[in-house]
Design brief:
Length: 398
């Protein structure tokens, strides 16, 4: 008997040993749910959902990291005590959108072929989000979209995130919309109301979880003393190049007029961003503190400690609203209008002059600053989004 025939015989023997499951056993069987995350914000915003679902004995919950980000993904997952069950490790230096999309599609597809799933959950608007959804769609596996329905209504802003969200929502089966406005966007696109659940944003769950911890002040913040601290993050693809240089020029302008101020800049790992910022602000001395990407607890501490935040991040707009911290949004529009109507989010665009003048206004006019920080509404929910997502999933499987 050759080796091939032996394997066939073994397979046949094993198959004959299997007793077919009863219908009662079938209904008692655990549902397999796969949570996918590729980048830092997906990890932070998916973490509360993973923890919540893992409490449910009816589900077998797995976490698949695509590794679109390496360090920043692992750092964020670690901050929430999550070790992925598998990591596709797709990241390459200065990767292209084609590379991310193709490798996530193939990698997640292969994972789903080897590990049967009853649902996959994706988050937000990254290339991981879209490509993982597509892999599930090709296998008729239902897709749950956490943070569904956000729209800027401009396919180039942010790029490629607006397209990623729209495409994901075309093929998703269950939609967790953070706000009524996001749900309305989905309804306008013809999504059936029974497939949509308004949940709040899971980043608020993550934020509250961290705020309950005792976070000590790092040394670099202690050296700032009573000087005004401004936290700044920037990474959007559409701002790479000259726009990013203009943003840095605005920082220099602010420091010229307020030499007592200090900018804390945790540099994104992307060389297209970090190299430019470092070069443009290299002569600012003690007025600029560069750090590596901060762990989430440390970043929350820095948000709290700052007078205001200057950022093009989506998640930071939501978090800032929950801690009543002004955030000057370096974009020309936002898919998170709740941050702006709440008052903490102020769109300043990406032009040097406007960023300079809005930043100086916050630094120089305490009365104006206090109108921005004194708010009582919760545009992105009260930290129970993951519980609502859990309830909706239970209903889906009923
Ligand atoms: C990605 C998402 C963006 C999200 C952002 C969050 C896409 C197309 N973009 O943008 O929506 O807002 O993440 O931060 O999905 N790098 C490292 N180590 C890391 C992470 C990144 O070295 O841990 C470097 C690599 O050279 C990598 C590059 O950064 O090639 C860009 O990463 P990529 O995921 O393509 O884009 P982001 O700008 O991070
Ligand atoms: N963040 C962090 N450390 C940092 C910078 C940001 O933990 O050094 C967190 C931030 O609180 C928010 C998320 O990362 O929850 C935002 O990620 P990013 O700006 O990379 O992506 P975006 O929100 O724009 O998609």
């Amino acid at each position: 008997m050759n080796a091939g025939t032996e394997t066939e015989t073994l397979k046949a023997a094993k198959a004959s040993d299997i007793t077919p499951i009863t219908s009662e056993q079938k209904t008692n069987m655990k549902k397999n749910i796969l949570c996918v995350a590729g980048t830092r914000p997906e990890a932070i915003k998916m973490a509360p959902v993973i923890h919540e679902l893992k409490l449910d004995k009816d589900y077998c919950v797995m976490t698949l990291a695509t590794g679109q980000h390496t360090d920043m993904l692992t750092q964020a997952l670690n901050d929430f005590g999550i070790t992925p069950d598998a990591n596709l490790n797709i990241m390459k230096a200065s990767q292209t959108l084609d590379h991310i999309t193709a490798s996530v599609l193939q990698g997640v597809g292969g994972f789903l072929d080897a590990n049967r799933q009853d649902m996959i959950l994706v988050h937000g608007d990254t290339s991981t989000t879209f490509a993982a959804s597509l892999a599930a769609f090709y296998r008729h596996i239902p897709v749950g979209h956490v943070e569904a329905g956000l729209r800027s209504h401009n396919m180039s802003l942010p790029f490629p995130e607006e397209a990623n969200r729209v495409l994901t929502d075309r093929i998703a089966d269950i939609f967790f919309a953070p706000t009524q406005g996001d749900a309305d966007n989905l309804l306008r696109e013809g999504i059936a109301p029974e497939k949509i659940r308004i949940t709040g944003n899971t980043v608020i769950d993550a934020l509250y979880h961290i705020l309950r911890q005792d976070i000590s002040e790092p040394e670099y913040l202690r050296t700032v003393g009573s000087r005004p601290l401004i936290l700044m993050t920037a990474h959007r693809r559409e701002s790479w190049g000259e726009t990013l240089r203009g943003i840095c020029a605005a920082v220099r302008d602010v420091l010229r007029e307020r030499p007592d101020a200090v900018f804390l800049i945790p540099l994104h790992k992307n060389p297209a961003v970090r190299d430019v910022i470092r070069e443009e602000l290299r002569d600012c001395g003690e007025n600029v503190i560069f750090t590596e990407p901060l762990g989430y607890p440390e970043f929350v501490r820095a948000m709290n400690r700052s007078v205001f935040i200057l950022s093009d991040s989506g998640g930071v707009q939501e978090e800032a609203s929950a801690i009543n911290k002004p955030v000057l949004i370096m974009r020309t529009l936002s898919e998170r209008p709740g941050a702006i109507t709440h008052g903490t989010g102020v769109i300043v665009g990406t032009g040097r002059e406007n960023i300079r003048s809005e930043a100086l206004r916050l630094l120089n006019e305490p009365e104006y600053l206090s109108t921005i920080t004194a708010k009582n509404t919760k545009p992105f929910g009260n930290g129970e989004a993951s519980i609502k997502i859990h309830e909706a999933i239970r209903q889906y499987f009923k």
